[in-house]
């Protein structure tokens, strides 16, 4: 499933929409950046409440496909700006990380 | 007053380093002139007049409970309420700073909230000082003078240095500043870019990016500042991180997953998971760390490809 299809299915608000629309391999839910670095797979979607540009830096370093910030957390301008300069898809959701992760898991689960 | 013309993101590197190295406690005035809840606004007014200040924190049992500004005193005078207790008229929603926050946080707070002063609390929540815009400007000028002097010396030393021969390897070096979360990750991003440019496998690039990011963030979070260097080529990436202290008291504990000494506001940024050094070691083929109290920490790791 591509990033844009996934965002549409989850009803995500696009915070930074200029990105290469590639296939999403998996998801990872965490607010600890070292944990993301250690365990998130490349081309995964990060589900987090960490609305800070360090989350973008980490996502970009480990080659994540997108970041979804949950709970309608406001995104600082510099975070959106960082995502734009990295070409990283950045979304917002009013739902909790649990809800977003649950729906994401159902969508990405291989039959 | 107009905003402080200092940006915690885009200023010259020297200034950035200063505002992240200096802490709020280096600029604050202490001890603080305070008043109690039961003091009258009149008494607060006299305290302002006698000490030449424009804001008085209201304290109960060492804890900050409110603040009376000159503006509130004038309003009280105007409304005939100057004999009323400070506890009734004070502002209760006071925004305070912590004494070990970098000065960059203080400048951001001044520009964001437009207050004339911020009370300063220690990590146990006790009122330990107060910081005004002029306190910050004074602290910065003192530090900038020292810094300019140091730079002048460095420039004349650099003019005497000569170039090194090239051996086909990529060499990168970066300075890392304490608490500079705005620029954290830049060294790793540059290293990643260079390795990609060398045509190194994506998986290896990722391992190097993880290692350098963890080392870089360790310096941002825990050290007094330091440097990261990378030498890459001919099937080998060597990363070295060296900082100016304070050193790790228990290296074995620091190498244990889950162990962290990061404080609350650092954790709120998503750091301090206690996975930094273990992550760096896990992605490396060789890993060595040397540290102890009173000296810096040196990490050297190698990733082969």
Structure explained in plain terms:
The complex is a heterodimer of chains A (111) and B (305). The two termini of chain A are 14 Å apart. In chain A, 41% of the residues lie in helices and 19% in strands. Chain A has a single domain (3-108), classed as HprK N-terminal domain-like (Udp-n-acetylmuramoylalanyl-d-glutamate--2,6- Diaminopimelate Ligase, Chain: A, domain 1), CATH 3.40.1390. The relative contact order of chain A is 0.24. Chain A has 111 residues and is of the alpha/beta class. Chain A is built from 5 helices and 5 strands, in the order H-E-E-H-E-H-E-H-E-H. Chain A has a 5-stranded mixed sheet, sandwiched between helices. In chain B, strand 7 and strand 8 (236-243) form a beta hairpin. Chain B folds into 2 domains: 13-139, Roll (CBS-domain); 170-304, Histidine kinase-like ATPase, C-terminal domain (Heat Shock Protein 90, 2-Layer Sandwich), CATH 3.30.565. In chain B, helix 8 runs antiparallel to helix 9. Chain B is of the alpha+beta class and 305 residues long. Chain B has helices at residues 13-21, 24-27, 41-51, 70-78, 86-89, 103-113, 133-160, 186-197, 202-222, 251-254, 264-267, 276-282, and strands at residues 55-60, 63-69, 97-98, 117-121, 127-132, 170-176, 226-233, 236-243, 286-290, 298-304. In chain B, strands 6-7-8-10-9 form a 5-stranded antiparallel sheet, with helices on one face. Chain B has a 3-stranded mixed sheet with strand order 3-4-5. A two-stranded antiparallel ribbon of chain B has the order 1-2.
What is the terminal-to-terminal distance of chain A?
14 Å
Radius of gyration of chain B, taken over Cα atoms and rounded to an integer in Å: 24 Å
* Strands of chain A, total number: 5
Number of discrete helical segments of chain B: 12
Question: What is the number of domains of chain A?
Answer: 1
Superfamily (CATH H level) name of chain A: HprK N-terminal domain-like
Structural class of chain A: alpha/beta
Beta percentage of chain B is: 15-25%
CATH class wording of chain A: Alpha Beta
SSE sequence of chain A, one letter per element: HEEHEHEHEH
Figure out the total of helices of chain A: 5
What composes the largest sheet of chain B? 5 strands, antiparallel
Main β-sheet of chain A: number of strands, strand sense, barrel status? Answer: 5 strands, mixed
Please count the beta strands of chain B (DSSP E, at least 2 residues each): 10
């Amino acid at each position: 499933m591509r990033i844009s299809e996934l965002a549409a299915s989850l009803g995500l608000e696009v915070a930074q929409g200029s990105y290469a629309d590639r296939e999403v391999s998996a998801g990872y839910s965490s607010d600890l950046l070292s944990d993301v670095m250690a365990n998130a797979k490349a081309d995964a979607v990060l589900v987090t409440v960490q609305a800070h540009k360090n989350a973008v830096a980490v996502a970009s370093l480990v080659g994540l496909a997108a970041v979804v910030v949950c709970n309608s957390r406001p995104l600082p301008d510099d975070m959106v700006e960082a995502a734009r300069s990295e070409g990283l898809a950045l979304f917002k959701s009013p739902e909790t990380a649990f809800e977003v992760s649950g729906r994401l898991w159902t969508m990405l689960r291989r039959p | 007053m107009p905003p402080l013309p200092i940006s915690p993101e885009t200023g010259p590197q020297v200034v950035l380093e200063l505002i992240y190295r200096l802490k709020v406690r280096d600029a604050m005035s202490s001890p603080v002139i305070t008043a109690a809840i039961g003091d009258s606004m009149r008494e607060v007014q006299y305290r302002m007049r006698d000490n030449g200040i424009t804001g008085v924190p209201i304290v109960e049992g060492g804890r900050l409970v409110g603040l009376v500004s000159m503006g509130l005193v004038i309003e009280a005078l105007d409304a005939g309420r100057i004999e009323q207790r400070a506890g009734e008229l004070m502002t209760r929603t006071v925004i305070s700073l912590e004494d070990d926050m970098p000065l960059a946080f203080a400048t951001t707070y001044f520009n964001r909230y437009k207050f004339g002063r911020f009370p300063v609390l220690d990590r146990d929540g006790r009122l330990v000082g107060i910081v005004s815009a002029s306190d910050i400007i004074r602290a910065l000028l003192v530090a900038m003078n020292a810094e300019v002097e140091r730079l002048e010396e460095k420039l004349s030393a650099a003019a005497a240095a000569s170039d090194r021969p090239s051996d086909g390897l990529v060499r990168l070096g970066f300075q890392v500043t304490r608490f500079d979360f705005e620029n954290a990750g830049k060294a790793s991003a540059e290293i990643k870019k260079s390795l990609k440019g060398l045509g190194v496998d994506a998986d290896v690039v990722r391992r190097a990016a993880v290692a350098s990011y963890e080392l870089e963030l360790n310096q941002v979070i825990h050290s007094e500042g330091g440097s990261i260097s990378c030498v890459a080529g001919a099937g080998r990436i060597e990363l070295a991180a060296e900082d100016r202290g304070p050193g790790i008291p228990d290296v074995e504990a620091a190498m244990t997953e889950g162990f962290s000494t990061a404080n609350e506001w650092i954790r709120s940024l998503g750091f301090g998971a206690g996975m930094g050094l273990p992550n760096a070691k896990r992605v490396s083929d060789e890993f060595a760390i040397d540290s102890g109290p009173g000296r810096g920490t040196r990490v050297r790791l190698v990733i082969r490809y």
